[in-house]
Design goal:
single chain
């Protein structure tokens, strides 16, 4: 296999992994949006109910929050797997290219290194959701 074919293969794999990350982040955001909507509707119901049903609504809100936490952690794992695979492909290409690496562009872009990027990157986004859901569960359980 020529260096050009190896480069093209590495680039295709990285594009595929980037697309997987994009899809996973998209479904994470959509699902979290649905769960936040359900949670807010539950809070609205909690204010309108009689004295004997608030415990059920609180239990439902806690379950919605736990579902948000679990799905965030699952998304985190799948996103990290894709990033790990991308790193392996990049390492493979750098090893294969050896001296001719200057003849080719980078197989992937360079990630920004700023504080805000590291805090709000796609690999850290699930942690943000976990923190928000934990706070919301605490506010419902301990008013």
């Amino acid at each position: 296999m020529s260096k050009k074919e190896q480069f093209d293969m590495a680039r295709e794999i990285i594009k595929h992994e980037d697309n997987l990350v994009n899809n996973r982040v998209t479904w994470l955001l959509v699902l979290q949006g649905f769960l936040f909507t359900a949670f807010v509707n539950g809070i609205g119901m909690l204010e309108k109910v009689s004295d004997y049903t608030p415990q059920r609504i609180v239990a439902g809100l806690v379950l919605v929050g736990l579902l948000g936490i679990v799905t965030s952690l699952i998304a985190r794992n799948t996103i990290l797997v894709a990033y790990d695979h991308t790193n392996k492909v990049e390492s493979w290409w750098n090893e294969k290219a050896e001296d001719s690496i200057r003849d080719y562009p980078p197989v992937r872009g360079i990630y920004p290194t700023g504080r805000w990027y590291r805090l709000l990157s796609t690999s850290k986004m699930p942690y943000l959701f976990v923190a928000v859901w934990t706070l919301l569960i605490a506010l419902v359980v301990c008013p």
